[in-house]
Every structure is written in C-alpha cells, then in structure tokens.
Amino acid sequence: MQGNEVAEFREGITLDRDFTARLSDQFTTAALLVTVSMVANFLLFFFVVILFLRKYHEGEVGTRTAMLVFMGYFGISVLFVLNQYPGLGASTQVGDLNKTYVRLITLFLWVFVLQLFLGVLAFSAWSVGESSSRSVWAGKMNAMDAFLTRKFFTKNGGESVLRGYGWGFALLGIHTAVIALAVKTRTLVFPLDLEGLAESYVPGLQPLLVAASAAMFGEIVTRLFVLSYARERTRRLWVGIALSILVWCVTAIWMWETPLGRFAQPWNLIVLAVYGGVFIYLFLRHDLLTALAAHFVIVAVSVAIPLLVSSADSFTANKWIFAAGLAAPLVVGTIGYVRGRRFEFTPEAMPEHILRISERVRMAKELEIARNVQMSLLPKEHPKIEGFDIAGLCIPALEVGGDYFDFGQGCPGSNLHDPDERDPAVERGRERHAKSRAVEGE
Asked: Structure pTM?
C-alpha cells in the first residue's frame, strides 16, 4: 500500500498435482523435440549445401533467382529482428553485462548466425529445388517467375495469390473451430507466442515480417526442394510426399508456431502433418505461389491476433498498418487477374540458367525415347527348347547403349550345308540388327 492506494498486488495459483505432472511431461517432451529439430535442421543444412555445390560444379543449377530469394529472405528476417530489438535478450543474462550489451549480443547472434544460416539454406534449397521442379513438373514456377522478374500484374500471379488467400482464410476458420472444441473439452492447449509483438517498434509490421519469413523458408525447403528433388531422384511421387511431410514436421517443431496456440504432443505433430499435407496439395494441384500465399495468411493473421483484439488506443494505427500490409498482395493479385495478361518466358528473355535446365530436360526426354526404341528391338520372349536353358539380358550402363542380341534357331541339315537355304529366325535377327544400327546412326 502507498497511502490509501494499492501500489502492487500478487496473486498465486496452485495447480493440482496431476495437471502439474502433465505439464512437466509436456515441457520435457517439447524440449526433446526442439533439440531433435535443431539437429535435423543442422544436418539438412549440410546436405543441401553440399548438394548445391556439386550440382553447381556440374552446371545443373543457377544462382540468379536464388540470389534474389536469399536477399529477400535475409532482408525480411533482419527487419523482423530489428523491429523487435527492444525486447531482445529480455530474459537472458550474460555474466555482469548490462541489458544494452546483452541486447547487442543477442542481435548479432540472431542476424549473423541464425538468420544467415537459414538464409544460406534457403538459397541452396531454392537452387536445387528450382532445377528439380522444372524437370519433373512444368508450370509450378510460372507465377513465381513473374514476380521474380518484376511482372507483378499478371494473371498467373493473380490467380495464385487469390487462390492462396482463400485457402489460408479457410484453413484458419477450420483451425479456429478445432481450437474452440479443444478448449471446450478441456484439452491441453498452450497459448500463442507473442513473437515480440508488444515490444516491437512497429507492432503492425511484425506479423507480416514473421509470416513472410516463415512462409518463404517452409515452402522453399520442404515443398520446392524436398518434394521436387525426391520426385526427380526416385520417380515416385509418394516418396516425395512422405519425405516432405517428415522434413516439414521435424523442422517446424523449432521453426513454426502452430496457429492460435500449440496442442499437447502428439496432437501437435498430427496438426503439423495435416498442414504439411495441405501445403503439398496446394503445390501439386496449383503452384508454389499458391502454397506460399496460403502459408503467409495463416501465420500473419495468427501472430496478429493479440494486436487485433487489443482495445488499447495506441494499437489502432498499427491495426491499420497490418491490414494494409495483408491486403497489399491481394490488391496486386486482383489487378493482375482482372488485366488478364499471362506471363510466359520468351526465348530471348529466358534466363541462362533456365535455358540450361530446359536443355537438360529435353535431352533427358530424347534419351528416354531412344531407350524405349532400343528395348523394343530386343526379343520379348526366350526360346523354349527341350534340354536347353536359353536367356538373354541387356542393361545399358546409362540411358541407352549400343548392344543388341537375338535368338536364331537353325537346322544343321539345311542351312549349315545348304547356304542358299535361310533360316527365317536368323533373317529376322539380321533385320532387327540393321534397324538398331540405323537408330544408333541417327
């Protein structure tokens, strides 16, 4: 008490023993999963960077658009760290250093260690993923190509943005209903992380920056790279989907905050897997920009909820800043859709690295045709002769080879002693051999 007024009060809450035990188990499990997630991200970094260096040395990937992606992702990440600078290191103690120096050390670690690490990972994943995507499914990059070449008002981009926003708000509505049901049934749900929102210089920008960073990293690494590269290497779509969901769940434990709050394990992992599956569907059914837009909306609105529901007058302007930032891509997409001009690379304007990828895809298709032609010239069945086991096999070292075999069945009493009598099987073999030589000559 200070005079007749209450200066400070404290309220204590005693939790029952069962709930405390459940909470302790959840925090222990969460700490273990976050540690596993950080190790997985570290290993993924080395795998992707080494793969990029090998493919770059072989001339299979380009860096032009990857550099734009890196600068965009790193710039956005640095902005959201700087925007929440007043709250950096708030709960961190480094020896006897005062809060100013602790904040500067935290800023350095966030920008030049963590965000640079993630930026290089996104750069490498984009380079390899772009190459694989253009090889296994054409059209997934058209809308992104329009934006990366500063052709913002195109129908490609407009369709993707509008579709992505629709999916994003629909998923948020479904997720809100699930959260409400969980709270009503007294299911354990952890509150939403504020992401430094209250301490930010411009709180209205923070949800947009966090969402842009999270959407770019998640879609580039787990959808564009993992899904496309696995599909290209294994030629099995289900393998790419399974690996993409696995990598997404493992990395998202550390990198991604579940919208509107986090469920207790293992339900939270199931929710992450569902989101991963939906983003994969949007990528496969439509394109990369659609998945990116839906991802952006989900994270942005979720992070902004404390700002939107606050009654403080000081947040009024920031609510409008957030609304304007969220609506900006929607306005651009709508204008592009109404104008109706589709974006396509002309041969003269096509970047050099895309030309190399297109040429590699063309050569792979032609080699596949040549392989099918070669295999069609080989015998389909082995001769069945009593007392003999006859078999033949041709496996080219690469896509095609120059080897050929056939089976000839002759009669010693006729074609060996009578050179004018020809075995039809031998003649067929000679004709096939001549055809194979003609194919090789072409």
From this structure: 0.78
